[in-house]
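Notebook B, p. 112. Complex prediction, attempt 2.
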Amino acid sequence: MRLRERLDPVCGERLYEGTTEGGLAVKVMPRGTVTRSCAQLSLDYGSVDRRFIPDGRVRPVTVPSGIAHFLEHKMFEKERGDLFNEFSRLGASANAMTGHLTTSYVFSASGDFDACLDTLLELVFEPHFTDALVEKELGIIDEEIRGYDDSAGWRGYRGVLEGLYRRHPVREDIAGTSETIRQITAKTLHLVHDAFYVPSNAVLCVAGAVDPQAVVASVDKRLGTDVDRRVRAATVTPAEPAQIKRRRRKIGMPVALPILQLGFKGPGARSGRDAFRLETAASIALEVILGETSAIHEELYAEGLIGDDLSSSVRADRSMSYALVGGQTPEPNALERRLLAAIEDGLSRDLPAEDVERVGRRILGDYVRLLDSMEGLCGHLADCHRSGLDLFSLPGAMSEMSPSRVRKYARSMLAPDRVTSVSVVPKA
Amino acid sequence: MPADTPSFTTVPLDRGVTLHHHRSDRFKTEFVRVFVRAPVDERRTLRYLFAALLSRGTKEFPTRRMLASHLQDLYGAGYGAAAQRMAGRHVLALRASTAAGRFLPGKPGNLKSLLAFLSHVLDGPPTGGDGLPMPDVFEQERRSLQRDLLGRVNNKARYALDRLYGEMYAGTPLAHPDMGTEDHIAAATPGATLEEGMRTLNEGEIDIYLLAPCTPGQAERLVRRHFKLAPRSRERLIPLGLSPPRRRVRKVREALDVEQGRLTLGFRMTDWRPGESAREGVLANAILGGGPASKLFRNVREERSLCYDVHSWIDNVTGTIGIQAGIRPENYDAALKAIRAEVRAMARGRISAEEIGLARAAVLSSIRTVPDSPAGLVEFFYRRRLMKRRGKTLDAVARGFERVSTDGIPALFERAKLDTIYFLDREELGRATA
């Protein structure tokens, strides 16, 4: 594997990029000034990849909801023992995350980086599943699901996705349900591992006190230098109508104050760059219109309709996009009306140029500060790779975001006829 | 930074006012924290409210909107004020950070702007003609605080923890969250809040931490130019005044409409001196329930599949050991038995060389990575300062943990008496009883 060196235009940091013969993308940002090294191995595989055509086959297969998350749990167990302990022995801490679209395995180490990286590659690419180990995990994951079910924020978020989507599997819980996880067997885990855990479907991002050539040597040693022709299985995503499924929902829970969660259903993006524009524009618009610098935020806070926790976020991908706005409020209906009116009014004309520029300065500052976080860097490098973006181009990309362009993209995301609202209210 | 280099250069600016400077161009963030000490007492609600007012505006930027715009102009500077319990004190803490100006267009002097901004924060919140905080602003922050207090039930793990401390330390300030009680919040007035907050700012022992690529002399000049801080008395630490541990275990069950039960155990050490056995405590916690290599994780979660999350903590100021697990209510007896068996194993010295090795490796790793984060570095050394720990370099701290013997851990756990079991149960089930 040959690495290409590139220079960060803002801070002058170096990034080394390459691809192994097996197809694994590798990105290394050495930072000699820190003591820790972090690595994140991310797979383009998440909870939405439930129906797929494995490489070399014709007919699609469907696997139980929650299997991506279950697989992530089981990857740590090997015949030689639990790799959590191996990372601990090496003075590292490890973790893993499953999302709708990706599964990531990370470690942060202050000691033997090469051994940790080798363990990470073993963890991801060398499965060891038995039905007994699957059985043992059921109780643990069941409790994880129950824990999330007691979280009002999570229930609101889940309610929004169920309200926005009719068929897209993003509407299902990432961890599945007590029932679906009981359909998982060692055989189905092998099926999805073979289908998605292939080097060409993954990116390894490393940041910290590392030598890029040593990273290459470790990867080659573990994965070999032979060409690996396996490709990712093709996910079959059901066609999703533009309309939402449900306009409004109320969920009763033991909470002190109602929580309003609004969801906006956006279009599927045409490309990774398109998704980036959609995500960035809608985020800027929501920050300008509803953020702490806005008049409406000040009004709503003064009236007691919001607290400090009003927040927004945007997610865009090739098969779906959505925006969320929400927080605690004593009057969910009144807050919903005010928020929707503010968004509609805010997008009825171009946003003030000085406000967009101010958000641009904040984004540039965030980019510079990101370079102080090894974990954050690995995560951003992996996200950019998945979207076909260049991390170093992000600060410059803000210059593309003129007020009229922000408005155009934001309007496609924040359409008033594709809104769902979920109120989590105190249960009587 | 070599591990044997002192992380901070300490510069006494005046009596009770100390600057701690870390010279480094490793970070792309310039970082300032100001800590002001106060006792854990009934006035902490006032300090909590005062911090909320400081977060909301300054005399120069009196509205939230103006403040937020100014911070965005400083390339998204981070700022916050909080009052929090820390090492037996109630500390008023200000934090501010910004991207280093040398990487930004026109190389703006962000550090100077940040210090100038903080100097206005230290002048106190905006006031009206009567010299008091604006009544409407005050009421908004009081309402926000009341909601935050009531909203703690939304996070079931935290709520269970609040309830455990409420039972274990009834009648002391530790029985309530840092923000106090509903009654304390209702009783607060603008005048009392301002008076207590300004008294804390002007009289509490103050530590300023500055991380920036300048010399200690430059740092001192910058801070002296921007901050006008009067000398103040050195802190006289007031004991927390805890009641002695119970003789009989108190079992409390509360039912809510939850899917998962939260089993929370509180142990108290007998004859505890605040701050004792610090290193042993950290290591012991790592062995018992500090991470995925711990006894609780391996034996209660992985071996017996009784929970997803289980962890322990040791507070060596109060001499408390806590354990919490999210469990299926039907598994209450099995989980309690399994958790208590692990605590018993600690007291009986049934700790393997592997467990000690994994725990020590985890602790050392966390120490070695402290310098990688400005916030982590400051917090780590400020806590050590509060606890009067020796070892001004990370290398010295790490050496301490390499050498610390685990021989005393069984004796430590022999002194740990189970005080309270709090169980947040599912509504329809009845199990543990009060």
